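note to self — DONT lose this again. spent like an hour looking for the file last time. sequence + predicted structure for the chain T wanted, 223 res
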Amino acid sequence: MAAGPPRGNGGPEPDGVQRLRRRDETGADRPFRQAPGLRSQLKREGGATPDDGERTAGRTALLRLVSGARLYFEDLKIGQSWSTGGRTLTEAEITAFAQAYDPQALHLDTEWAREGPFGGLIASGFQTLNLAWALWVRVGVFAESSRGGIGIDTLRWTAPVRPGDTIRGAAVVRECSETPRRGRGRVVIEHTFRNQRGEMVLTFRTLSLVASREGLDRQAPPP
């Protein structure tokens, strides 16, 4: 994520940033529609939502969102890998996310961005990370065995993501280690994401806690 435009010369801010600031000061509602939520996306894709037919238990609904085999700590091996699906970002999604979470001109103001360092509007790096994580979670490898994340290391945004770009990723197990607490282990996974041209746009490593089958038997996840 690059920094916003400098203002050391006291010049006017880009229009997009000025409009956002006035809305913040007045407290008025922001005149944009949020990007479609998960419920809308699932309906478009024919997936289940808690409102479809009889009410679905939370855990069952979760498992319907993901694909692939369910794995546990003892199933994992160094070098094991998976691929994610793809997702295309629109200009409307990029500006909506930026207004809400990363209000910088290079994500908001098309005219300023055209003359800026990237030659056009780009997505916030945090939006790219958010999208990448959603694509990985939907693979479903740890849908039953995840016991939470400890952190993210070596996060790098290696190329800008622009409107119309489609990103997809790969994940590789780099480390597995047992924890003092029985029934789970620590797992380091390296994630890389590329656009439709094969250019790498994002890399990071996650450190997560993953339950074994024994651990799952001892403490089932909440509904």
